[in-house]
């Protein structure tokens, strides 16, 4: 028996695979519904499916429709019961605003983001036959709870942080954690949107503002941030390479743009701002200006 993971965000995929591996369940991971259907049709040992509703090629819920179309509806109640027992048994990972069709006989459990390792194990047990149920070796550890991970890292929603690091590794990790916790995400980067989403583990709904040209339009960038904050419930804005903006626009204009963005915060516009910059290329007074505007993040 195998498990099939339908998930296109690397952070979430890694967590799911880790839990399955620790409990001795062989698994396959795919990014799209199309890949998932091909896998199910060619290898019927995949008796469990862990399905995220947000995947690359559209809503993950379409997998349920495709599966029911492929598995022809039996006429008798006995045939329907046998089909439900034979699986595959589906565990749906969804947001709180989404719903799962109650008529689907394959859906055995639902997980609403964020969730804990113990909740994931309970869902897996609901999908497994009684004689194959597992015991959670890490029960109580909040491995898959992104809000707890933010607390562990010392991140408070509504604050601004600057990261003095040569590469944006930590910002990447924190962005993935915010994304898994269901926050609204905006990434400012020079990378292409698709590449940036994959790199930061963001779902396809996350907004990406791509900086282009030899002289970045900082006014347009500020307007983009303003619109995003005003239109989002829990906005998180991240800038993955402040050095790059400084190189294109100069130190003074970059600092003025940062001040304008941070000044958008008010009673009606609470948001988190993350900025990564190589502190080694900045002068002492330049680092001091940044830390006067934002909290210096010190990794535990």
TrEMBL record:
InterPro entries: CheY-like_superfamily, Sig_transdc_resp-reg_receiver. It comes from Methanomethylophilus alvi (strain Mx1201). Keywords: Phosphoprotein. The lineage of its organism: Archaea, Methanobacteriati, Thermoplasmatota, Thermoplasmata, Methanomassiliicoccales. This is Response regulatory domain-containing protein. The modification 4-aspartylphosphate is found at residue 52. One of its GO terms (biological process) is phosphorelay signal transduction system. Residues 2-128 form the Response regulatory domain.
């Amino acid at each position: 028996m195998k498990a099939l993971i339908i998930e296109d965000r690397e952070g979430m995929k890694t967590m799911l695979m880790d839990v399955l591996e620790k409990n001795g369940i062989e698994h396959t991971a795919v990014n799209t519904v199309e890949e998932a259907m091909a896998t199910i049709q060619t290898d019927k040992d995949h008796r469990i499916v862990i399905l995220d509703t947000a995947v690359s090629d559209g809503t993950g819920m379409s997998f349920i429709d495709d599966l029911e179309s492929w598995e022809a509806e039996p006429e008798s109640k006995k045939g329907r019961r046998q089909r439900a027992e034979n699986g595959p048994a589906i565990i749906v990972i969804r947001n709180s605003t989404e719903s799962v069709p109650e008529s689907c006989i394959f859906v055995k459990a639902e997980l609403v983001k964020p969730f804990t390792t113990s909740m994931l194990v309970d869902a897996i047990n609901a999908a497994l036959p009684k004689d194959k149920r597992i015991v959670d070796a890490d029960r109580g550890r909040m491995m898959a709870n992104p809000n707890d991970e933010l607390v562990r890292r010392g991140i408070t929603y509504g604050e601004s942080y600057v990261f003095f690091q040569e590469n944006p590794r930590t910002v990447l990790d924190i962005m993935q954690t915010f994304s898994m916790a269901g926050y609204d995400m905006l990434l400012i980067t020079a990378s292409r949107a698709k590449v940036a989403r994959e790199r930061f583990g963001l779902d396809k709904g996350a907004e990406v503002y791509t900086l282009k040209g030899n002289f970045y339009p900082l006014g347009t960038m500020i307007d983009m941030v303003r619109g995003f904050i005003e239109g989002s419930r829990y906005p998180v804005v991240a800038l993955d390479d402040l050095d790059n903006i400084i190189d294109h626009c100069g130190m003074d204009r970059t600092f003025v743009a940062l001040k304008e963005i941070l000044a958008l915060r008010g009673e009606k516009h609470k948001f988190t701002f993350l900025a990564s910059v190589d502190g080694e290329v900045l002068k002492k007074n330049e680092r001091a200006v940044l830390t006067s505007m934002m909290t210096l993040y010190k990794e535990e």
